Amino acid sequence: MGYTIAQKIIKEHLLSGDMTAGQEIALRIDQTLTQDATGTMAYLEFETMGLDRVKTEKSVAYIDHNTLQSGFENADDHRYIQSVAEKHGIYFSRPGNGICHQVHLERFGKPGKTLIGSDSHTPTGGGIGMLAMGAGGLDVAVAMGGGAYYITMPKMYKVNLTGKLKPFVSAKDISLEILRILSVKGGVGAIIEWGGEGIKTLSVPERATITNMGTELGATTSIFPSDEITREFLKAEGREEDYIPLSSDPDAVYDKVIDINLDTLVPLIACPHSPDNVVTVESIKGTKVDQVCIGSCTNSSLLDMLKVAALLKGKTISPSVSLSISPGSKQVLTMLSDCGALSDIIASGARILECACGPCIGMGFSPNSAGVSLRTFNRNFEGRSGTADAGVYLVSPETAVAAALTGVITDPRDLGTMPEIKMPESFKVNDTAVLDPAGSDAAEGVEVLRGPNIKPFPTSKPQENSLTATVALKVGDNITTDHIMPAGAKILPYRSNIPHLSQFCFGVCDKAFPERAKSLGESIVVGGANYGQGSSREHAALVPMYLGVRVVITKSFARIHVANLINAGIMPLTFKNADDYDKIEQGDSLTLSGVFEGMDKGEITLKNETKGKEITLCCSFTERQKAILKAGGLLAYTKEGK
Ligand code: MIC
Ligand code: SF4
After folding, report:
1. DSSP strand pairing (31-34 vs 58-62)
2. How far is the CA of 536 from the centre of ligand 1 (A)?
3. Whose CA is nearest to atom 1 of ligand 1?
């Protein structure tokens, strides 16, 4: 039996475990990336491990999320990350250099390598044939220290593309189509390989748009082959030597195969408040639009920006729309400026933002109240934009421009003829905004600079054989990490200050939660299906842990979040029978007994003391995960010298 692309990379990096879907495997990690909103915590964790130098082939620290410096906090964190990177052998991408995933694709990603990043959109690297996965900060810290990254061996899905996209239909529409087909839960436990004749029509940045949004499917990662198109991209970046060819074997076996004919695809749009709430643009055209945002790690490549500029050229945006443009990197911005396309964008009335995440993570540009915002981003979760009652829609750059020009949702095919976009043969490479770390001799003299906003890492308690605690919160299906630990301009600066951050925990669902959890001392959270989807932020586990949450019981969990809960020492359990979700209410007192034996058996019995009912819960912890929970989290476990 032949191998898929992902299986080939996994086989080469396998440190332990059996490559059967569902089994735990340990992987050697070649590269890591962090961004600033998760990086401060990841480096504090790395420091706690007491190692001098990173042991990876390349580790890069990016500053791209917290670039709004409305107080000392973000600037202090940047300074901390810069100094800690310099000391420990990590490359430092300065603020303004661009969004981590875009820059990593341009400058550092290599086909066939493994990459983990403390950001859920790390699978963007799959566009260049990397096995790139999002992880919690602590897992990234361990990988930087040379430790293995543990995942459940995924199932293999294949998407076969045939045909060619029509004008005004783009890679983003392919992402939305697969979300429409599979939903935000459809990729859980799987790696999605993209293939078929149709991929030959897609450049690396277009492939990266698709692998980027594989995250929204819940997939472990997504990957494209490394082929002549990959070689051309690397050559244009001046690093053809990083190219290796990579494809699946003809007799590789997939658990699921999906076919998409690009010829028949039309412009699509994801309606509020979920990326899989997809309909055709045509079906909701005419809806009034207040704001349009173009950028984010999904759609900020040079190709995207050149398309936008060409469509805006010589036109003025609608007076009722505010349009923001954030190019993905300094490279993209420089090239836009050099070819004059930037002037076309400016002349249209767009507002140029810096090369960073910006509005995507609620860092400014929140819509007006009850506003309609069309964004080329990847997430439209409730409240994420910073305006609680805004309606955020996800679209391609083409559809975004059409709305910016007309003031209403418009099928971009109504704009007439799509201008021809000529991509340059080579990209303008200027890596001066990436700082090399100090050599090992000089590193000792580098002082790590810590600001007053950096508070100590919270510690968890070991799980015990029995626990009685109250349900502090009960929530429904598809709870995202943006519900659990919101981001945005007011909150993000406190990512290294868990006590302060804790005041906002579950703010979208129930503002009284933090106080209630604190007053209970120890508590339990109950959720529905796909709990913890979205971001990789370990804060969505660390903050509940700080507030005393000991156990989370749900119908099912998202991959990165469940790993983060275990790393934080919180026990994740699922209902054996999903209907038992209805047998628990907020405020009920629950008792778990025989926990250790239950961990071995895979079943733990819970007694709802308030309702006098017994419920069976499931778990499938590996020996390592059991030990982590019994030690009180991964840091405590690592300190025990495991
Ligand atoms: C996001 O898109 O939600 C983020 C912000 O990039 C997160 C990371 C974070 O919370 O810092 C992600 O996707 O992992
Ligand atoms: Fe940044 Fe948005 Fe991409 Fe997250 S999804 S890395 S916030 S641009």
Report:
1. parallel
2. 6
3. 535
Q: What pairing do the DSSP bridges indicate for beta strands 155-162 and 256-261?
A: parallel
Tens digits of residue pLDDT in 312-332: 999 999 999 999 999 999 999
User: Is 422 domain-assigned?
Assistant: no
Say if residues 361 and 278 touch (Cβ distance below 8 Å): no
The answer to whether 580 and 608 have CB atoms below 8 angstroms apart is no
In whole angstroms, what is the distance from residue 398 CA to residue 243 CA? 31
Residues 110 and 59 in one domain: yes
Radius of gyration, CA atoms only, the chain: 24
Q: Are strands 278-280 and 268-270 parallel, antiparallel or unpaired?
A: antiparallel
Tokens of 375: 């964004």
pTM as predicted:
0.97
Strands 523-526 vs 467-474: parallel, antiparallel or unpaired: parallel
Q: Are residues 243 and 116 in the same domain?
A: yes
Answer whether 120 contacts ligand 1 (Cβ < 6 A): yes
- The closest-lying atom of ligand 2 relative to the alpha carbon of residue 300 is 8
- The rounded distance, in Å, linking the Cα atoms of 321 and 332 is 24
Distances (CA, A) of 525 to 464, 481, 500, 513, 550: 17, 14, 21, 10, 8
| 79 alpha carbon – ligand 1 mean position (Å) | 20
Domain containing 548 — which CATH number?
3.20.19.10
Spatial distance between the Cα atoms of 336 and 185, rounded to a whole number of angstroms:
37
Does a structural domain hold residue 452? no
Residue 457: pLDDT over 90: no
Tell me how far apart the alpha carbons of residues 326 and 99 are, in angstroms, rounded to a whole number: 10
Distance CA 14, CA 16 (A): 6
Ligand nearest to the CA of 326: 2
- Do both 329 and 387 map to the same domain? yes
Q: 220 vs 182, 185, 322, CA distance in Å? A: 14, 11, 36
Q: Looking at the 3D structure of the chain, how many domains does it have?
A: 3
pLDDT band at 642 (very low <50, low <70, confident <90, very high): low
Instruction: Compute the average pLDDT of residues 147-166.
Output: 98
The string of pLDDT tens digits covering residues 390-428 is 999 999 999 999 999 999 999 999 999 999 998 899 999
CB 365 within 8 A of CB 353: yes
Other beta carbons within 10 Å of 466: 10
One domain for residues 497 and 582: yes
* Beta bridge partner(s), residue 222: 192
Please check whether residues 113 and 181 belong to one and the same domain.
yes
Integer Cα distance of 204 and 213 in angstroms = 14
> With a 6 A CB cut-off, is 37 part of the ligand 1 pocket?
yes
Domain range for residue 508?
Answer: 467-639
Pocket test for ligand 2, best of 213, 304, 357, 379 (most atoms within 8 A of CB): 357
How many Å lie between the centroid of ligand 2 and the Cα of residue 320? Answer: 26
Q: Using alpha carbons, list the distances in angstroms from residue 407 to 115, 280, 388, 396.
A: 41, 18, 22, 16
